[in-house]
Write a structure and sequence with these properties.
Blueprint (H helix, E strand, L loop, with lengths): L8 H12 L6 H8 L3 H13 L3 E5 L2 E4 H21 L6 E2 H8 L5 H13 L3 E4 L2 E4 L8 H17 L19 H10 L3 E3 L5 E3 H18 L2 E2 H8 L3 H13 L3 E4 L2 E4 L2
Antiparallel strand pairs: 1-2, 3-5, 4-5, 6-7, 8-10, 9-10
Helix pairs in contact: 1-2, 1-3, 5-6, 7-8, 10-11
């Protein structure tokens, strides 16, 4: 309170931002509480950012340096725990870290916080995943063998892959099936067509070649034609075609799929 009553507007603004950091409060609120105009506040803000007292997330929100440091420690602890429990997965899903780190913050602002922590080399981000900075999956010989065996199961299954819960592990294997699958997905060896259906990347690529060539020759492909060409069931044919739709390679017109563009 002494600072807020002082004649130092920079100190007042720094304290006002610090008090609103846990809510990712707007700068206009901090300017009001510090008793400075928006024009003066922006000038003061530049000095506070330069002195590393405050960190600017965007043109409307800033947080205190100490608050960002505390978020970095919390993020590190969350990710360390995640890696200890699930060592074969490259990282935590970004949305999960956002929710656990800043449950009340909006997606855009919490993403900016994660980006700032990445810039400080506290964590790494890649393809929707977040990990501790420098973390790399390290497999034992037994785990490497299990990964290869799992890949072969899907490759041999072709266009009729097993559901994840149906995949057996050989007796004596001290590996986690879910983590093995996650690793294969992270490596883009398996493609998640739906929440329940995974398929080997080579088979997805081959299926796309069939769909693409048919559309080029016949100006479209139906579900029944696609299913028959792959010699698979309706369930897997639909999953593949809807995946191609989602990837904006195709679109459905009536009962026929054509190129998206």
């Amino acid at each position: 309170f002494d600072i807020m009553a002082s004649h130092d507007p920079s100190a007042r603004l720094s304290l006002a931002v610090a008090h609103g950091s846990d809510r990712l409060a707007l700068l206009e609120t901090a300017f009001y509480r510090a008793g400075v105009s928006a024009l003066d506040g922006k000038q003061l803000l530049g000095g506070l950012v330069a002195s590393q007292s405050l960190v600017l997330l965007n043109e409307r929100v800033a947080v205190s340096e100490s608050f960002l440091e505390s978020l970095g420690r919390r993020a590190s602890a969350l990710l360390a725990s995640f890696h200890a429990k699930r060592p074969l997965e490259q990282g935590m899903r970004r949305e999960e870290l956002r929710t656990r780190l800043m449950p009340r913050a909006g997606i855009q602002l919490s993403d900016l916080v994660i980006d700032r922590l990445r810039d400080r080399e506290i964590l790494d981000t890649y393809d929707g995943l977040v990990s501790l900075h420098g973390y790399r999956v390290s497999l034992s010989p037994e785990e490497e063998k299990a990964v290869h065996e799992m890949e072969m199961i899907f490759l041999k299954a072709g266009y009729a892959p097993p559901l994840p819960d149906e995949i057996p592990l050989q007796p004596g294997k001290r590996v986690d099936r879910t983590q093995i699958l996650s690793l294969l997905i992270d490596r883009e060896i398996l493609i998640r067509l739906t929440p329940q259906i995974l398929m080997h990347r080579d088979k997805v690529d081959q299926a796309w070649a069939v769909a693409r060539d048919t559309i080029e020759r016949e100006d479209g492909i139906t579900l029944a034609d696609f299913r028959d060409r792959l010699e698979t069931s309706r369930k897997f044919a639909i999953a593949l075609l809807e995946y191609f739709d989602k990837m904006k390679r195709t679109r459905l017109t009536g009962e026929t799929r054509v190129f998206f563009a």
